[in-house]
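Quick one, T. Sequence first:
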Amino acid sequence: MKRKPPFRHVLVRLSCLCHHQFMQIYSTNTLKKHHVRCWLVNTGWSGGAYGRGSRIQIAHTRAMIQAALNGALDSVPTVPHAHFGMAVPQSCPDIPAGLLDPRKAWPDPHAYDQAAQNLTRLFAENFKKYEASVSPDVIAQTIRAA
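C-alpha cells:
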C-alpha cells in the first residue's frame, strides 16, 4: 500500500496558523534570545515504510520527552541527519540506539534513503511557495533536496 507522506505540508500549514513572517520573527528572535533548546520527537512511524514498519512505542516517546525535559540530552553527542540536517542525538536513556537513527531502524537502508530523498524533494518543492517572504536565515536552514 503506497501512502503519501503525511507531513509534507504540515510544517507550512502550522506556520499558517500564525502568519509565517510572525512565526519567523518569533522563532528567530525569541529562541535565540532565551537560548531555547528545541527537540523534534518522532512519535510516528519507524522501521520501514507505511505498512512495513511500526509506530514508535509510547514508552520510547515518553523516555525521549523525559530526557529532553530533564536535560539528559543537553550534553549528548549529535550527528547531522544526512537528509534533513537536524542534529540527531547518539544516545538517549532507555532508548535502543538503533531507534535514534531512522536509517538503521529500517531493514533496507537503501529503501530508507529513497524515501527520505523523496520527502526532502516534496518539502523543498512546497517551500518554494514561501521563499520570497522569509529571511535568508530561514532559507539557509530549510530542508533541501539532494
